[in-house]
Known about the structure:
This protein is α/β, with parallel strands linked by helices. The protein has helices at residues 24-34, 93-96, and strands spanning 12-20, 40-48, 61-65, 71-72, 89-90.
Amino acid sequence: VRNIDYPIEGRHVLLVEDIINTGFTLDYVLSELRRRQPTSLEVVTLLDRPLRRMVSLPVRYVGFQIPNDYVVGYGLDYRELYRNLPFICTLRTSVYDIPTAPPDPTA
Length: 107
């Protein structure tokens, strides 16, 4: 998270997010911005995964609520792939699910 150089005290601030998952990073950013005493501070996100949320957050505007699937496209990537797609879609789990080895009985 990079520090902003622009003073926001007494201003209306709209924080734009691409996707909200657990909310930990956004919670930190919001607390840092609140310390600068804006008149108002609202959050807008394109994609929201409320099922993964670990922190209660005030998200004012949500484009789409999505399930706990891996999404790519429109700038979102998986291992630097698929970000150039002109749409957002979910990946098949076979693309990112790595099978685990059976337990070693001698261990």
